[in-house]
Amino acid sequence: MQSLFDQGPPPPCPAPFNMAAHVLAHADDAPDKIALAVVGLSGAERWSYGRLKDAVLGTATGLINLDLKPGDIVLIRLGNTVEFPIAYLGAIAAGLVPVPTSSQLTEGEVAKIAAELKPRAVFRGAGIACPKLPGVAMIDEAALSAMQALPPASYNRGDPDRLGYIVYTSGTSGNARAVMHAHRAIWARRMMHDGWYGLGREDRLMHAGAFNWTYTLGTGLMDPWSVGATALIPAAGVDPKALPLLMKRHEATIFAAAPGVYRKILNDHDRIDLPRLRHGLTAGEKVSDAIRDDWRAAAGTELYEAFGMSECSTFISGSPTHPAKPGTLGAPQAGRRVALVDDTGTPVPIGESGVIAVSTRDPGLMLGYLGAEEETRARMRGEWFLTGDLGVMDEDFQITYSGRADDMMNAGGYRVSPLEVEQALGGIPGVTEIGVTDVEVKEDTRLIWAFYTGPAPLDEAQLIAVAGERLARYKQPRGFLHVAELPRNPNGKLKRRALSALWQASRAETP
């Protein structure tokens, strides 16, 4: 028996189609229902479905009035505010192609992205790094906010396979890659509603992330809105230890966060009283059994994990109706075609290790990497898109995660290429060579660490300051270790996985 899951395709995406129209379809039958509450300890800012739709379509009108045309790329450089999802959906409603980016990116990182994208406009928040871009319209938050009151535009409907939005992910080549998604990607996410969330119209889903994180944008906003549920987002600056109180006050039924957020909550709470909460969701990095067990003991609910990637969102998960077996990621969601394959793209036998792969026919799979056709093809084996992650499938299609097939790192839910970090830190005076990896500094906590050679150890604070100038916070090494030489194989290639042993040895030597 092969490691292949296929129980039939999902229903085809309707046409003509617009992603924003799909997300806000329930605004017409429930205009007064609360779509979004931005919750803080001092109160909440609430948006009804009717108000949200008006703001989105007014923004679309404002963008059209600026002579932006369908297919034009707009770069989003906004902070953790409600203007972020409104501008995002407004652009999609008008047929533009928004590119959400982390507010943590440095000016240099944004300059590289802009050079690749050649955007027509930038949505820019105060204090968010962005270089000067001649000939590119800069639209600030005040202008975006004013657009919300304009008369509504009509949705730009068309082929569901056309380019809808772009997100960035670390590429294995060391360069951040622009992942192109079609409008139909939101339709494909319906497989997650039962396959992971257990999501319905009466739910109140709280996501712990910021508005400008793609995990929040999808799981915390787009998906709840697409079923007519209520999204709850913590206000900027809310401490994780306050999240249980906010969940209780606002009657959250589902909570979604990265594993690290659950860990921080558990550090401050032995008992968590959440009478309305049915379960929690987690993704971004592997959740440990310790966090699962501690959350179950403290809150009395289960955590359901999902596995995915920027190129296809999540497609393997446990859910309330189909829980994952202990130690596994869960099973492919109904409607997916997933296999564990060998180097030729052939599914391996059940019980054997293989690369987790999703069919290129999956409606949620990306259109490709912008301007990187060769790297796009390199991820394909026949009909399969290779994730780069290893696993083992059992006879019930449950998949046990076995780690990465390459050196990609995981930093708080962000996948980061060590090559990208090494290239950014090149040329530091006194550094001959540098290599980076993520190390487990304590149970359930992995941080990026840099290892360098040179005539003598350098001041670590100065090295950290250089990293802060060149890299977004989540990509920065949290420590630097001077070593006599970097580990290499007989062909001279850096053995990044061996770097962790150097870090462990240095801890053992520290009094």
Short synopsis of the structure:
Helix content is 27%, strand content 28%. With 511 residues, it is of the alpha/beta class.
Characterization of this structure:
It is a single chain. The protein is α/β, with parallel strands linked by helices and about 500 residues long. Among the domains are: about 190-335, 3-Layer(aba) Sandwich (Rossmann fold); about 335-405, Roll (Luciferase, domain 3), CATH 2.30.38.10; about 410-510, ANL, C-terminal domain (GMP Synthetase, Chain A, domain 3, 2-Layer Sandwich). The protein has 15 helices and 27 strands. The longest helix is centred in the N-terminal third of the chain and has 17 residues, at about 50-65.
CATH H level of the domain at 189-334: which superfamily? ANL, N-terminal domain
Mean pLDDT: 94
Query: What is the terminal separation in angstroms?
Result: 54 Å
Named CATH topology of the domain at 189-334: Rossmann fold
Regarding CATH, which class of the domain at 189-334? Alpha Beta
Q: In the CATH classification, which architecture of the domain at 189-334 applies?
A: 3-Layer(aba) Sandwich
**Strand element count:** 27
